[in-house]
Amino acid sequence: MLLLTLAPPPSPAAAGRRRLGRSVRCSGVHELERSPSPHPGASLPPLREAKRVVLVRHGQSTWNAEGRIQGSSNTSVLTPKGESQAETSRQMLLSDSFDACFTSPLARSHRTAEIIWEGRDEDLTPDSDLREIDLYSFQGLLKHEGKERYGVQYLQWQKNAANFSIDGHYPVRELWDRAQNCWERILAHEGKSVLVVAHNAVNQALVATSLGLGAEYFRILLQSNCGASVLDFTPQTGGGPPGVCLNRLNQTPYSPVAGSPGGRKTSKRIILACQGATQNSPEISLAGMGYAPLNMLGIIQSQKIAELLLDLKVNSILCSPQVAAVDTATAICEVQEAADCLGADCVPRYVERKSLLELEIDDAFQTKQKSFGEIVQSGCRDSMEYKTLERLWAQSKDAWQALLNELPDDSTSDRVLVAVGHPAIHLALICQCLNLPMEYMSSFHLDDGSISVIDFPDGPKGRGVVRCTNYTAHLGRWSIPITRPTENDEEF
What we know:
The protein has helices spanning 62-66, 80-92, 107-117, 143-150, 152-159, 171-188, 200-210, 296-308, 323-338, 372-378, 384-405, 423-433, and strands at 22-26, 29-33, 51-57, 100-103, 124-126, 193-198, 228-234, 243-251, 268-274, 316-319, 352-355, 415-421, 451-455, 465-471. The chain is an alpha/beta fold.
């Protein structure tokens, strides 16, 4: 059984006015104007108390299996595999005491919700705005049929979905509007923990709109069958929109590195592996920085990361020169190089290892007791904490470029790169990947021993697709239980 491991809700993150992309006319065609400065949670309604929302996509459906374009049609139902995935999700979420479950009314999603919700007293709450994206004439077509019949329109759907139009509609923009409406009702519910069971595209839109991201982020935040994404909302002092933290993205019932379950195929991948816990981890808010060695839990976590990556042929490992990162990277490397010696024909696998100074963390953080959100919210740009955070942010730009430089710029070579470092630098790298400003570092959470996976289906010069963040199911019994108390817990 997989255990969904959740960190506690964070302190309020910085919030401002949310600016979704808006439609402008260009040469007679409506184009989506990309917002240059998004703000997490700024358009959400105020909250009186903290709330957690867990989003789950439905299990595999008959049209998923056939490769048909589903949209908001209601013909497709769960396959036996989809029913099994839903049962795994039920077990994964069994210990969480949800107060309510909102669900799409479409059969494949509603059935998934019924399986996950089995044994709970509250009724399911169908919401028509949680239905999958409306794709009009595309719905029911096999993908090759869509390409043959619609040509240019199908290409636009694949390459520029935010501006894709069909039958007089802009489906992705309509979806973003629906998702925003859904948040009004979901966050208005009095429960502290809410489950939402819906679909791929609408769950992407829910994640994106909660963070203030426009429709240009469609297909960038992956949602696999029965993948769970967790959002924490915290009230702001003095009212106003809540702080938002994506605690994890797309925790699946299966390994996120085994093949490519969902999303576009890719031959280029970066795996951000957070170092294991250190002897400093319980004492400071930005834990484990500097030269503290792994503690016993950290050693176990490093081995679990290595086991998760065992069947994945890693080409390179780049790590921070700090002790905990080096020890975690060494564990991964040793297992990788021994993998091909388990049979009779022993051919050791060579894994390139490099120390990357840009992944190192400033020792000044060791003495800080404030979270990223608190540092940003303080507004004191002259403070030592803020200047140190700015140095980390500037450093992360160089680190991200260094990682991209390790990926070959061709369409044929496979390349899997593992970057090992402290969660703090990985938070900044995720923001760099998504082209988000420094203030967004408090809008994501990473645990010791977690992994995050970023794919590059269009190569290193294309946009990174985030397959998952803060995946921890591989840690097994050493994972943080979903019901872990929230008092005095650490935040990244």
